[in-house]
Write a structure and sequence with these properties.
homotetramer, about 220 residues, mainly alpha, Arc Repressor Mutant, subunit A, 2 domains, 11 helices, about 70% helix, about 0% strand, elongated, DNA-binding, DNA binding (chains A, B, C, D), HTH_TetR (chains A, B, C, D)
Chain lengths: ~220, ~220, ~220, ~220
DNA sequence: AATGAATGAGACTTCATTCAT
DNA sequence: CATGAATGAAGTCTCATTCAT
């Protein structure tokens, strides 16, 4: 979804330039479909612009230019600039969570799941390099969305940890501490990403020894 | 252009003087003292404004109003708004590092030092609630300063960890991994602070069980 | 006077740095002399600054920096910035007129005097490259002074032309036309200077054929 | 403020569009036409403001007020204030050249052409009294445009003079001197205009004896 | 008098939002 | 609805002048 800007635009253009096309499947789009396409294009454009220039430089003019629509059109889809920015992380964040879930679904143990999730996070970032700024600048520019996202991710961690704790696999036994551990893992991932996972756009593969360090701490610090 | 003028003036400035060597009581401050006072007031005002409203709303007008000086005065002390913002974290960051160093200097072991440092960080935040935003929004608004600060903090961690590793106290043995561990600790602290350390201005005492969770992971995950 | 900035500054510095100097002649200057020195330094500085950056960029700060005095000092000598700018052309303009008069005083005929004056103007500009802007930008930035200067120069021309006319040496006979001719000569000189007389600072020698063209027109167009 | 602007604009628009016209096609202007109108209004406003107050006082606010548009609108048409100022002389200068060409096209000889051109210049100034400052202050405020304009005008003179020289009608025979002569004519015209052609706004008719003086010099000084 | 920092009015420019077509 | 130009509030920075030392 993050990199669909071009496709979306291309799609629209094609339609316009050749109204008599006999394309069997893509006949004229309905109104609703067109609207949905534009909305999607605006999201994709916003993602790209925020990813490249940050929230603070994500001007409406830039987003609409990127989406190949007029500036005024923006306000047919969003109440305000902030409205779109508030929706950006939820939209893209869901995709990330789904991606990670999918990638870690076949784990044999909680520890393995953690490693797979960890790797998947960086895999996702490699595919969607815009996500880093969309996620981490949201604390400043879309705080509500950020907090929700954070809580959702934390809940995921806590659920897993809880299961492990109930099986007696954890070094901690205080239920309250589970969320603290979750936050620590999230923070650790954030900083490793910041430091080792972002060499320019297009990303870079995370060094294997970073994964080693992370898993060493996870295995020894959290699990027995 | 402006710079030429400034340089010329700076060159002429005789900053030495102090002919009134022993005037200890003097109600009136010397010019240099006044200047220093205003500079400090601007920094303090900026810290407060950034802490309360964030970098993105730290307008020059707000800062100067807070410091009770005219807007133009600002530019006698800083090249530009960004110039001040760039200096803010270094200035306050130093104070934090000094505070933590002082608080953890009497630790008997590396692990104890880590706990004392961890607690001191939150102590510092309680005293300087503005610091949270000054530090963490800097990634967006003063990236260079942020990176420097981050590296300085990381270096501190690495130094400690290295010592421990050389004594065979660590679970990892790859020197490269030390920095990864440092980043993880920093990230963990950041997120714990975000989640548990900031209930409104004035801060809140960190729950003891958060410290427990943190130290459990540190002890089991990093140290043998 | 135009190039005394350095000297003036050196003078002050020397005095300051070695109050016990036994220099036999330059003992302490009187108050009045000091004032006169500063005023001269400000004029010289203004000339240099205007010559290099134009009136519109001749900020008080630049002028005082160039003169090595404090900004506030400026207002002990001039009512306002405009006040100095208004006095600049009269001051330097007098020097130019004197220079030209001196250079053309030994002419055997009016035509020869004109050639000598013409050459002397460019000679003066070579020595004082700042003069071009001081003079010609004054039309915009010190219009009153400009007009006065212009009239003074025109009067000089008219006086000469009148003499020639009375001797029947001119092609025109209407007294009113004398001033028109004077203005034409001034305009011609201005434009030749603009086009041929100013290659960078330091000036350039006027090509001889430009003088030829000028004198051809003067000889054939004005004199019989 | 918004209201004022709107009303003002509405007023202008209505007036311009001529509701009583039988406009066969369309009462309302197309968008492109409106844009062109605003651009023209901005140029006209700039010309008036510069003519009255000079480049140095031609603030964006003044220009837009004069054009009855909002300040922000300015930047839909020009990159910056300087951008407009740079375009002003080329725009108006072309009009002047066309005017003069038209007025002197039916001349029987080069000398006559020169007289007609000379008169036409002042005619143009009478119609466009703003042109004087637009042209002559450009040396300071839009130097590039000024130089281009100057060169264009000089080329025109040189072309005419060259023709005459080839026919042996000139007193000079050195091709290089042609441009010098052109500059002299331009300077002469400038100064005559400054001294005799601008009594307040609305201009004044140039005294006939000024034309006589000019033509006497041209005929005797340049042509045989 | 000299100093040089403080002042604040004022200029330019940006950009989210509105609105007429 | 889409369009894209118009709007004007708001923010940054400059610089002549003032003023306390």
């Amino acid at each position: 979804m993050l990199n669909d800007a071009k496709k979306a635009r291309a799609g629209r253009t094609r339609e316009v330039e050749d109204p008599s096309a006999q394309a069997p499947k893509r006949t004229k789009l309905t109104r609703a479909q067109k609207k949905e396409q534009i909305r999607a294009a605006l999201f994709a454009a916003a993602a790209k612009v925020v990813g490249e220039h940050g929230y603070s430089n994500a001007q409406v003019a830039m987003i609409t230019a990127q989406a190949s629509v007029a500036q005024g059109t923006f306000y047919n889809y969003f109440e305000s600039q902030q409205d779109l920015l508030d929706q950006l992380l939820p939209t893209v964040g869901q995709a990330m969570l789904a991606f990670i879930k999918e990638a870690s679904s076949d784990a044999a143990s909680e520890v393995e799941r953690e490693e797979k999730s960890f790797r998947a996070f960086f895999e996702f970032l490699k595919i969607n390099p815009d996500f880093y700024r969309i996620l981490y600048e949201a604390e400043v520019f879309a705080p509500e969305a950020y907090q929700k996202h954070n809580e959702a991710v934390a809940r995921g961690y806590v659920r897993v940890l809880e299961r492990a704790m109930n099986r007696g696999e954890l070094r901690i036994s205080d239920k309250r501490e589970l969320e603290a551990v979750a936050q620590m893992l999230m923070g650790a991932r954030h900083y490793l990403c910041m430091r080792f996972g972002r060499r320019g756009r297009g990303g870079i593969s995370l060094p294997e020894w970073v994964v080693d360090a992370y898993m060493t701490v996870v295995k020894g610090g959290i699990y027995r």
